[in-house]
Specification:
By secondary structure, the chain is mostly beta strands. It has no helices and eleven strands. The strands form two sheets. Strands 2, 4, 5, 6, 9, 10 and 11 form a seven-stranded mixed β-sheet that branches. A four-stranded antiparallel β-sheet has the order 1-3-8-7, with no helix packed on it. A hairpin with a 5-residue loop joins strand 9 and strand 10.
Length: 116
């Protein structure tokens, strides 16, 4: 029922930018907190950015000032604008949705590679 589909990943040079999108279906969406996580090879999955239903955001310290999370409730989509990308940002990025009951749902992930 609940589906999250990420897109926008790819290869980018250091200092470049990408915008990731996560389109949701099977949910009200406007009431759901959303977040972006990432997982690099050999590392644990980590929180990158989160946004509440009311639009309050928070970020990992490593991306603060470079990344921006936003949401469009009409399109049931959450975005992650990534600027000033660094090689250490290379990872698979995952979208997460939290239901009113506390259940979580994940997208399939989209790969971001930052390399020259």
């Amino acid at each position: 029922q609940v589906q999250l589909v990420e897109s926008g990943g790819g290869l980018v040079q250091p200092g470049g930018s990408l915008r990731l999108s996560c389109a949701a279906s099977g949910v009200i969406f406007s009431i759901n907190p959303m977040a972006w996580y990432r997982q690099a090879p050999g590392k644990e999955r980590e929180l990158v950015a989160a946004i509440t239903a009311g639009g309050i955001t928070n970020y990992a310290y490593s991306v603060k000032g470079r990344f921006t999370i936003s949401r469009d409730n009409d399109k049931k989509t959450v975005y992650l604008q990534m600027n000033s990308l660094k090689p250490e940002d290379t990872a698979v990025y995952y979208c997460k949705l939290t239901s009113p009951y506390g259940s979580t749902y994940w997208g399939q992930g989209t790969l971001v590679t930052v390399s020259s």
